[in-house]
Amino acid sequence: RILKQKNSFSTCRIPRDFYSTPYTYKLYQQLRNYASQNTCWNCGTVLGNGIFCSKCNFLQKVDEQKDYFDILDLPKSFNVDSNALTKKFRQMQSVLHPDKFSSRSQEEQDISLEWSSLVNKAYKTLLAPIKRGEYILEQNGRELPQDNSALDQKFLMEMMERNEEVDEAETDEDLKKLQHKVKEELDEISLELCKAFEEKRLDDAVATIVRMKYSISLGNSLKEKRRRLGF
């Protein structure tokens, strides 16, 4: 006997002997999963790539596994255009924000909240260079070390010396010079990191992100000291 389809795989009538073997049971589960992911939860219409059903216009459920770059319709690259990212984020929130669904069903309101939260999380992750780099590493099955194992001793010694420079600087001019130097270093590190990801040199990317974190921390220390001294 065969499956008798009504509106979608999710509403199939299943013969009693369909579960007779592990293979057929697994196949049935795959069909149900396919249906739940590719048909509208409200009307059962087969979906395209959009997040609204083309037939009933209901907002579709969130796919938590969806890539942040795909969500915001951006190329999968460390080199992100922050203006394009922000523009896309605002466009999506103007459509998905829960306020837009105040007169819709409770389920759509809940789905809207989930979508809005996911888009917000994706935006914040891709906007910040460190978080963006960590996310790309995570997508490639890598993560940053919990210690300084990714750094060579020369760089660590250099960072210690730089921290001493911050401690010793007392004038606004000295602090501004150090800030300018940090900015130049961060620009250089960003280019190195972009190239490492493009060439899929993940070990180098890990080490470069750790260096970036140290440099950003140094820049924050300089900013805080200028604030503390009233500059």
TrEMBL record:
<keyword id="KW-0143">Chaperone</keyword>
<dbReference type="InterPro" id="IPR036869">
    <property type="entry name" value="J_dom_sf"/>
</dbReference>
<dbReference type="InterPro" id="IPR001623">
    <property type="entry name" value="DnaJ_domain"/>
</dbReference>
<dbReference type="GO" id="GO:0005739">
    <property type="term" value="C:mitochondrion"/>
</dbReference>
<protein>
    <submittedName>
        <fullName>Putative iron-sulfur cluster co-chaperone protein hscb mitochondrial</fullName>
    </submittedName>
</protein>
<dbReference type="GO" id="GO:0044571">
    <property type="term" value="P:[2Fe-2S] cluster assembly"/>
</dbReference>
<comment type="similarity">
    <text>Belongs to the HscB family.</text>
</comment>
<dbReference type="GO" id="GO:0051087">
    <property type="term" value="F:protein-folding chaperone binding"/>
</dbReference>
<dbReference type="GO" id="GO:0051259">
    <property type="term" value="P:protein complex oligomerization"/>
</dbReference>
<feature type="domain" description="J">
    <location>
        <begin position="67"/>
        <end position="141"/>
    </location>
</feature>
<dbReference type="Pfam" id="PF07743">
    <property type="entry name" value="HSCB_C"/>
</dbReference>
<dbReference type="GO" id="GO:0001671">
    <property type="term" value="F:ATPase activator activity"/>
</dbReference>
<dbReference type="InterPro" id="IPR004640">
    <property type="entry name" value="HscB"/>
</dbReference>
<dbReference type="InterPro" id="IPR036386">
    <property type="entry name" value="HscB_C_sf"/>
</dbReference>
<dbReference type="InterPro" id="IPR009073">
    <property type="entry name" value="HscB_oligo_C"/>
</dbReference>
